[in-house]
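In practice, a research group might receive sequence data for several interacting partners and want a quick structural hypothesis before committing to experiments. The following worked case mirrors that situation: the sequences arrive first, and a predicted assembly follows.
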Amino acid sequence: MGEFELIRRYFMPAQVGAGVVTGVGDDGAVLEVPPGQQLVVSIDTLVEGVHFLPDTAPARLAERLVGAAASDLAAMAATPAWLTLALTLPQADEPWLEAFSGALLRRCDELGFALVGGDTTRGPLCVLSAQVHGLVPSGRAWRRRGALAGDRILVSGTLGDSRGGLETLLHPPPPAAEPAAIAQLRQRFYRPEPRLELAQRLREHVHAAIDLSDGLLGDLGHLLEASAVGARLQADRLPLSPALQQLYPQQAQAWALAGGEDFELCLTVPPERLSRCLDTARALAIPLTEVGEITAATGLQVVRAGATVLGALPSSWDHFRSKNE
Ligand code: ADP
Ligand code: MG
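A structural hypothesis for the assembly, expressed as tokens:
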């Protein structure tokens, strides 16, 4: 099967999406940004051996790729519109492509993306990139900058689960672990659920935002730096799932602070908007938890059982350092 046959067979969506003037099949896509809206663009890559274990099911890779990329749009309070896909593959393995493209197109559909183009190349390793394009009312995109002293820090969902899911894949889970709890944590690792709807519903209330891809300490650190403020984080308030607490009671809090790939949102809101934000999240049945406060003094203070514990904490993932250090 040649490159063009491969694209036609697996990556030609059945229907064109909203705003797509020209999609897959030309030299470029032509897209219509509605008046009064701005385009938000972000790209994410998964590299075999770095982000996923060889032999990971292709459908899982597709779901992780699209979900993780979409999380960046949630962090900007943007709505998904279009997606382009760059694939580097060692060979054109048809069952692999069939499963990958089926899952990718399905996930795009669920999250509101039209696949409008891409690039397909052969290479020694499997490398997958998704560029996502989202829309936001002009001037309304969330940023990492904008947090003010006194803002409350909120996180969505539960933290550390994805790290726990990875642990169950790398090492045998504790013997007493319930299969349902193992499955839940693995699901969090394989299938990021970007908080798109929550972001859109909270759009007007938030001062600063980031999504949690590398771990709360590191990602909140980026937000603090961009906003030129500090924070006090209450470690005992971090939302932990029952599954994570059951399987890894010793590590749960550390993974909530520094485990990667939760793809939850970390938001700062002024105190007078707090209860509205919490009500909105409750109505969507999405956990949203106050975990700390923005301070005028820079630096990140972590408080556990009333004592400041910063210094004894693991830091977040950085690809260009050799390990979590
Ligand atoms: P060019 O050589 O002009 O860059 P290509 O031959 O790479 O074009 O691609 C042909 C068409 O197929 C383009 O519209 C491109 O966007 C699309 N395409 C290529 N690979 C993919 C893919 N993996 N998924 C979706 N569309 C793709
Ligand atoms: Mg061309």
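Before designing any experiment, note the following. The longest strand covers residues 37-47. The chain has a mean pLDDT of 94.
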